[in-house]
């Protein structure tokens, strides 16, 4: 090409550059560079005469100046950097001035890293901004070497295939630089970079502020990593981190010798973390560590870890750990807040957690708050360790293959160490293999012998815990346990301190459940195991345990609620003279850790030991309802094992109206106690609608004292009698405690529901008030003319020599009408009443096929004279036809039909509640029908019949109210009991009114006759005396 053509091409490219470079890209004070039309010279850099290379621009730009790179076609011809030639070959030269670089027209590609260095070790602030640049296939993108402080802004840049995209490195010999640094990166991408943004590993700035917004990090070792940074504030918003082999965000310290007093904060909002080994990893020795996450998504690869043991990797996708020494007394505070975020499919590869927070320091504390957050299909969800408060509000944990929540505290020492506190409010835990676990034993640092638990608090309110497929063969929904150190392992010397630290012998535990529903679980809903010397409270209030089954540990005596104090001390023997073998135990009624279960319901729970299972302790069950709970071998509702447990039951109801389960052979005992502790039951009801034939409904076999008040009732199924086996005091067993020996005398009480033997019957259900069996409910001898089998009574077949005839109602109705119209003779009517069915067929035949002749009418008229008396009996009380009114001469059939309907309902509907509903409805319909028809001629008769029917409706309604309560397994108590007493007296008054009037009239008539006899007798006697005196 000739010189003229080259000049023309240069002028044309320059014109294109000017056209492509709009007015908005022309900035004042910018040194322009164009690899297309620029020429390097000492005077280049203006808009009209740009430089050609970036090194020339870097030489010419002033400190604090700005370079504008023409990005047109720079992808195929990228810009180079400053280079020097040394003994090790060509090296990139450091830039020792503040500079800003911007791509114009289009993104400017740079094939090398820009290295910035400081001329001084102290007090130098390096400033710069970089925008619209692309760094591709280079070792570094932007490298700040030994810069004590910097203020850098990066926007609209791309870093592709770089080893370290943005790297801040300090290699000074002093340990701390007390300067503030600032880095802001927006609208940029980091693709296939080993480290996207890195601080360290020998950088120890006093404070670093990092702002990341609208970024994409994809594929690398770290997205953002801070190493050995003493204090920082990191804000991440609207960014995405994908496919990082170690951590998307990593904050680490290599050397930990002491607590760093500075505060560290990380804020992440509206961001996504997908398919990373760790999403946020913070392992720091700082005194205050804050992490705030909101509206973020954390997602891992779908999969399932092959579970081989219960040991878990306690790291997490979000992993925050304080690495301060265990015994450093400096206060450590860790604060984590997570709101409106989603964690799903995490921890499958390494059996880790979605969120893990750990503080090993004995004096450390803090809080972890999670709200409006969901955990879905994770291997494990949340782990905390340390003196932390963990707060869940409106959190959903669903389909966790391992632990939903796992919490523990460092071993408690004589030097006060805070325990772990877990609070759940309005949460849903569904289909998790293991729910909440607070029974982890931990060991002191630098030794494995000194292991124990710390103080623990678990409070769950207004929450729902559901079972599902993942809970099959699973762990407990809530496991709360505290194990104490062994006697010989209570002291440890901890490094680096030489101070001896003693484990505490006293612990505090608090477990509160309020308004929590446990539904469809496949292991224990609540499992508690606590050693002695623990103070606090276990409270279950207003909770519901529904349709839970426990078949995981078939060889253990397990139930829906399992509470055990395995090493509880037995009662004390009183002081007495030597040789006294009749000592009585001294029971300590005050417990350091009482168990309160109140206002709760237990329904359709099935397990080895039914609904509730206790070992030792002081247990109070109050205002609770138990319904249809089943146990395979040891009791269906409440079972207390052999030991020294104290049990109090107050104002509770037990109901069993179903028995048997598809997988078990149930024992439907309401209560089974094998404990030597006192048993006290007040104002409770035990109602068995069904029961196993040879199993007791109540059994207490080893209790030292049994108190059952008279307001407590036991009821058997209909037709069964209740029997009591009771030995008030019998010799029990000898208790030896060291040198002390005393005898435990035990009481023995069992209630059975038994069938009446053949030849006996029972129309009531066997019942007992306290230990007093009601005689009226015992089996009675079968009367003459009846058959009694299995407690039922039936009339012998055809005992009265005739069968009941249903067609009688129709005969009375139709026959009354025919008789009133003189179409039926009196003899035929009377005969049809004795044989109703044949005459119904005869009358049907006459009605449809035979027309009556005049002779027949004459015959019937003749016969009507004989039927007048019958008509008076059947028709006189009722209204005759008049005009359009057909009258009610047939009403005798209605009266009979009403009785037949009530008897049919009574005999053929066996369920008491359904029977009384139908009877009440029939009575109301009858009353309405009577009010509409007004069948009697006499108005007073209609009023009397109305009052009678209203009384019948009232009586049926009163009984319906009572049977409705009984059908729910409840006994009237308190104001309800008084109300039912009043209703019973009203019923007696209504039923006895007419008989009482009749009795009064009979008595008056008898008295009148006696008076008349006496009167006439006296008169006769006087006349006789007078006659004798005359003679």
Describe it.
It is a single chain. With 1031 residues, the chain is an alpha/beta fold. Among the domains are: 519-572 and 589-781; 809-968, no CATH class; 983-1026. It has a 61-stranded mixed β-sheet that branches. Strand 73 and strand 74 (792-795) form a beta hairpin. Helix 3 runs antiparallel to helix 4, helix 3 (808-820) runs antiparallel to helix 8 and helix 9 runs antiparallel to helix 10. The longest helix has 56 residues, at 975-1030. The radius of gyration is 47 Å and the shape is elongated. The termini are far apart.
Summarize the structure.
This protein is of the alpha/beta class and 1031 residues long. Among the domains are: 519-572 and 589-781; 809-968, no CATH class; 983-1026. The protein contains 11 helices and 74 strands.
Average pLDDT confidence is 79
Give the beta-strand count. Answer: 74
| Largest sheet features | 61 strands, mixed
Query: Roughly what percent helix?
Result: 10-25%
Percentage of β-strand residues: 35-45%
Number of helices: 11
Q: What is the terminal-to-terminal distance?
A: 191 Å
- Describe the global form: elongated
**Radius of gyration from the alpha-carbon trace, in angstroms:** 47 Å
Question: Which class do the helix and strand fractions yield?
Answer: alpha/beta
Catalogue the unreliable spans: 487-498, 576-583, 661-668, 800-805
């Amino acid at each position: 090409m000739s010189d003229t053509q080259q000049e023309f091409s240069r002028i044309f490219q320059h014109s294109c550059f000017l056209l492509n470079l709009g007015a908005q890209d022309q900035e004042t004070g910018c040194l322009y560079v164009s690899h297309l039309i620029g020429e390097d010279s000492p005077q280049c850099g203006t808009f009209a005469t740009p430089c050609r290379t970036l090194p020339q621009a870097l030489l010419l730009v002033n400190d604090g100046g700005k370079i504008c790179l023409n990005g047109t076609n720079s992808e195929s011809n990228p810009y180079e950097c400053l280079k020097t030639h040394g003994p090790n070959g060509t090296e990139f030269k450091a830039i020792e001035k503040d500079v800003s670089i911007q791509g114009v027209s289009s993104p400017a590609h740079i094939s090398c890293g820009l290295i910035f260095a400081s001329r001084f070790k102290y007090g130098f602030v390096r400033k710069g901004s970089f925008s619209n640049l692309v760094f591709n296939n280079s070792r570094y993108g932007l490298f700040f070497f030994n810069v004590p402080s910097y203020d850098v802004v990066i926007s609209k840049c791309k870093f592709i295939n770089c080893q370290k995209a943005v790297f801040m490195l300090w290699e000074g010999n002093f340990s701390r630089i007390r300067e503030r640094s600032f880095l802001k990166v927006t609208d940029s991408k980091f693709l296939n970079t080993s480290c996207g943004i890195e601080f360290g590993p020998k950088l120890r700035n006093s404070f670093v502020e990092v702002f990341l917004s609208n970024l994409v990090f994809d594929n690398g070792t770290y997205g953002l990593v801070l190493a050995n940074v003493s204090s920082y504030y990191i804000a991440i918003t609207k960014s995405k981190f994908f496919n990082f082999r170690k951590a998307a965000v990593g904050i680490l310290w290599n050397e930990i010798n002491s607590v760093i007093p500075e505060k560290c904060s990380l804020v992440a909002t509206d961001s996504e973390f997908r398919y990373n080994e760790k999403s946020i990893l913070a392992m720091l020795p700082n005194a205050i560590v804050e992490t705030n996450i909101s509206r973020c998504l954390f997602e891992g690869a779908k999969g399932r870890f092959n579970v081989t043991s219960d040991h878990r990797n306690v790291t997490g996708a979000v992993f925050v750990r304080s690495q301060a020494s265990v015994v450093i007394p400096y206060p450590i505070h860790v604060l984590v807040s997570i709101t409106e975020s989603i964690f799903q499919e995490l921890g499958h590869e390494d059996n880790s957690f979605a969120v893990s927070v750990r503080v090993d320091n004995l004096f450390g504390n803090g809080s972890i708050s999670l709200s409006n957050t969901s955990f879905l299909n994770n291997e494990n969800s949340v782990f905390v360790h340390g003196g932390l408060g963990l707060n869940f509000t409106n959190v959903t944990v669903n389909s966790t293959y391992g632990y939903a929540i796992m919490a523990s505290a460092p071993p408690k020492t004589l030097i006060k160490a805070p325990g772990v506190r877990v609070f759940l409010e309005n949460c849903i835990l569904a289909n998790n293999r293991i729910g909440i676990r607070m029974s982890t034993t931990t060991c002191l640092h630098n030794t494995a012998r000194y292991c124990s638990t710390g103080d623990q608090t678990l409070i769950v309110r207004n929450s729902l815990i559901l079972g599902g497929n993942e809970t099959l063969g699973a762990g407990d929904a809530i496991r709360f346990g505290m194990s104490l150190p062994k006697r010989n392992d209570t002291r440890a010397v901890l490094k680096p301190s030489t101070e001896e630290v003693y484990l505490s012998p006293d612990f505090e535990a608090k477990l509160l459940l309020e308004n929590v529903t446990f539904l469809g679980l496949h292991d224990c809903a609540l499992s508690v195991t606590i050693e002695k010397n623990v103070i606090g409270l276990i409270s279950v209030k207003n909770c519901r345990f529904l349709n839970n089954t426990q078949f995981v540990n078939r060889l253990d005596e397990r139930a829906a609620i399992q509470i055990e104090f395995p090493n509880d001390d037995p009662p004390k023997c009183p002081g007495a003279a030597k040789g006294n073998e009749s000592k009585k135990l001294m029971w300590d009624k005050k417990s350091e850790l009482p168990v309160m279960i109140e206002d709760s319901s237990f329904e359709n729970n099935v397990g080895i030991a039914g609904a509730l299972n206790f070992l030792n302790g002081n247990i109070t069950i109050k205002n609770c309802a138990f319904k249809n709970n089943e146990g395979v071998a040891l009791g269906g509702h409440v079972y207390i094992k052999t030991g020294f447990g104290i049990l109090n039951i107050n104002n509770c109801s037990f109901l069993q109206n179903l028995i048997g389960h598809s997988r078990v052979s149930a024992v439907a005992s309401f209560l089974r106690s094998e404990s030597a502790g006192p048993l006290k039951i007040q104002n409770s009801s035990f109602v068995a609608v069904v029961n196993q034939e040879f199993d007791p409904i109540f059994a207490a076999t080893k209790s030292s004292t049994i108190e059952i008040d008279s307001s407590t009732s036991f009821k058997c199924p209909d037709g069964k009698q209740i029997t009591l086996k009771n030995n008030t005091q019998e010799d029990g067993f000898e208790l030896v405690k060291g040198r002390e020996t005393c005898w435990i005398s035990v009481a023995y009480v069992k209630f059975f529901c038994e069938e009446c033997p053949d030849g006996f019957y029972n129309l009531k259900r066997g019942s007992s008030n306290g230990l007093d069996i009601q005689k009226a409910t015992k089996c009675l001898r079968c009367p003459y003319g009846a058959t009694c089998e299995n407690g039922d009574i039936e009339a012998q077949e055809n005992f009265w020599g005739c069968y009941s005839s249903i067609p009688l109602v129709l005969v009375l109705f139709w026959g009354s009408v025919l008789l009133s119209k003189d179409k039926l003779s009196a003899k035929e009517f009377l005969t049809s009443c004795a044989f109703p069915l044949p005459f119904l067929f005869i009358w049907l035949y006459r009605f449809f096929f035979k027309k009556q002749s005049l002779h027949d009418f004459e015959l019937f008229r003749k016969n009507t004279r004989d039927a007048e008396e019958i008509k008076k009996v059947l028709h006189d009380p009722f209204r005759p036809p008049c005009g359009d009114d057909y009258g009610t001469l047939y009403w005798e059939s209605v009266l009979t039909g009403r009785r037949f309907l009530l008897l049919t309902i009574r005999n053929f509907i066996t369920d008491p509640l359904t029977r009384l509903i139908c009877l009440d409805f029939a009575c109301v319909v009858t009353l309405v029908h009577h009010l509409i028809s007004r069948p009697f001629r006499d108005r007073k008769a209609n009023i009397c019949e109305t009052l009678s029917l209203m009384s019948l409706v009232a009586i049926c309604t009163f009984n319906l109210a009572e049977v409705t309560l009984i059908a729910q397994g409840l006994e009237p108590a308190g104001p309800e009991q008084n109300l039912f007493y009043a209703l019973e007296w009203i019923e007696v008054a209504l039923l006895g009114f007419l008989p009482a009037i009749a009795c009064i009239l009979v008595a008056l008539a008898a008295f009148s006759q006696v008076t008349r006899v006496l009167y006439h007798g006296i008169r006769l006697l006087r006349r006789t005396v007078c006659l004798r005196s005359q003679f």
